[in-house]
Amino acid sequence: MSMLEITDFGKRFTIHHLGKTMPAIEHINFSLEAGEFIGIVGKSGSGKSTILKSIYRTYLPDAGEILYQSDRFGEVDLAKLSERQILYLRKYEIGYVSQFLSVMPRTTCRQLVTNALLEMGESEEVALMEAEKSLAHFELDPKLWDSYPNTFSGGEKLRLNIAMATVKKPRLLLLDEPTASLDQQSKVKVREIIEKLKNKGTTLVGIFHDIEFMDGLCDKVFDMQTRQLTVAKEAVGYES
Question: Domain ABC transporter spans what residues (predicted)?
Fold first, then answer.
C-alpha cells in the first residue's frame, strides 16, 4: 500500500481583480511507498510548489485525490479532512520545509525548535536536549539560540526552518527548495539529516533546483514537463 498517492490532481487560481480563473496544473499522477524519496523537477512556474502546498493542505485541490496513509486515521484523502485533522497531521505526521520562515514573534530560536517537540508530547528536558543537538548540527551559532529569528540572515532562517521540521522526525516530509540560500557546507548538513531520516523510514517529497544535491538521494524523479515518474538514475536531461 502506498504512503502517498496523487491521482488526476489539478489546481486552479482565481485572479479576482481580473475576474479570471487560471489553471495552474492538471492531470498529476504519482505515488510513493513508505521510506521512498521522490524529487519533483521542472521549470519555474510549472507548479512544483503547488503540489507540495496541496499535500500540506495550504491549498485545496480543485480536482483529483491526494491519498495519504496516516498512522492515526488510516488511508485518507487530504483534500477532504477537517481542519482539526489536518492540524493533527501537521503536528505529528507531516512536516514541511519552505524557503521562507514564518514563526511566532518574540520567540527565540531555541524556543521554536524546543516547542516543536513539546507539542508532540516530549518532556521539556528531552525537547531542549534534542533542539540544541539539531541547532548545533546545522551550525547555527550558539550566540543566536536565544535571539529572535527576525534578526537572522536568509541562510540562518532557512537552517532554523529545517531544524524545526526535521527534529520532529515526521512520517512524511515535504521539502520546497530547502537548500535555496545555503552555502555548500550547510547543504551537506541538510543532506546528512535527510539521509538519516530516510534510513529511519521517513517518506519524502522534495523540490530542488540544485540537481547535484539530488544525486544518490532520490529514489524517483517526477518531471513536470513530461508528467513522467522515473527511477532517479534513469532521469537524465531534465531541466531545473
Answer: 4-239
